[in-house]
Design a protein that fits this description.
heterodimer, A: 94 residues, 4 helices, elongated, B: 160 residues, alpha/beta, Beta Polymerase, domain 2, 6-stranded mixed sheet, two-stranded antiparallel ribbon
């Protein structure tokens, strides 16, 4: 699943921002920091074993997937309830 | 897309069945300590008939598409280096015969090293390999990953 889709205009702007940053020719760690990468988080992750990193990422991805599935289910339920309300027959007044 | 994710089990399964493969993409990045999240496992596999058969036999019990069209899938993987994505009981797996910027399995192996995962180990792209592959792909998301990978490479070099 690609979660990073940009329009051509957004992509051009994105590349321009990255290029501006690269043109500064900073140290790679400083470049990453300036771009908003959480360097301290990377340092902490490097202290973990590869299997620990894999399991951590796996559980985060699983959590996000479950959250998405739950949101989708709620949306479908709300749509179903709306449809039912719209289909409700109008009671005739005697 | 699969709703369950267990890259560890999928990698263990492939390793136990002696499938010749290299972990590439976001899972390889994760093994090198990036903080990204991914929803599929990308691997580069050796495109020999024996290995493709091993790969398909390993995945078939867990992948309806391969199970139901076994021979067709084997032929497809033999003839399509760009590979294909499959849904399995453990999550989605992207099977690639070639890695952009690196080449086929043999060429990619030069940019890989063994990574120990508890009681088994896998071949995974090194930081240099990931950087080369990302430079070749050069999509916006690759540019983003490159910034993190180069920072990690600097940290790695400073440790040496």
């Amino acid at each position: 699943m690609d979660t990073f889709t940009l329009t051509p205009e957004q992509e051009a702007e994105f590349r321009r921002i990255i290029q501006t940053l690269l043109d500064k020719k900073l140290d790679p760690i400083e470049t990453a920091r300036e771009f908003g990468v959480d360097i301290e988080q990377l340092i902490l992750l490097r202290k973990r074993k590869p299997i620990e990193r894999l399991r951590l990422m796996q559980s985060m991805a699983q959590f996000i997937l479950k959250g998405r599935a739950s949101i989708q289910k709620q949306k479908e339920l709300a749509k179903h309830e709306r449809d039912l309300k719209l289909r409700k027959p109008v009671t005739s007044v005697n | 897309m699969s709703e369950t994710l267990n890259y560890e089990s999928l990698l263990r399964l492939l390793t136990e069945n002696e499938v010749k493969m290299i972990v590439i993409g976001a899972v390889a990045m994760n093994l090198h300590a990036t903080d990204n999240v991914t929803y599929d496992l990308d691997i580069c596999f050796e495109r020999s008939s024996e290995n493709i058969e091993r790969l398909c036999r390993t995945l078939a019990p867990h992948c309806p598409v391969i199970r139901s069209a076994f021979i067709d899938m084997m032929d497809f993987l033999k003839t399509n280096p760009k590979g294909e994505k499959f849904s399995t009981d453990f999550g989605d797996i992207d099977l690639l015969g070639e890695v952009p910027g690196l080449g086929d399995y043999q060429a990619t192996l030069q940019f890989a090293s063994m990574v120990q995962l508890e009681d088994f180990s896998v071949q995974a792209l090194t930081l240099d390999g990931l950087i080369k592959a990302k430079e070749a792909a050069n999509r916006p998301k690759d540019q983003l990953h490159l910034i993190t990978l180069r920072a990690l490479k600097k940290m790695e070099d400073e440790e040496k």
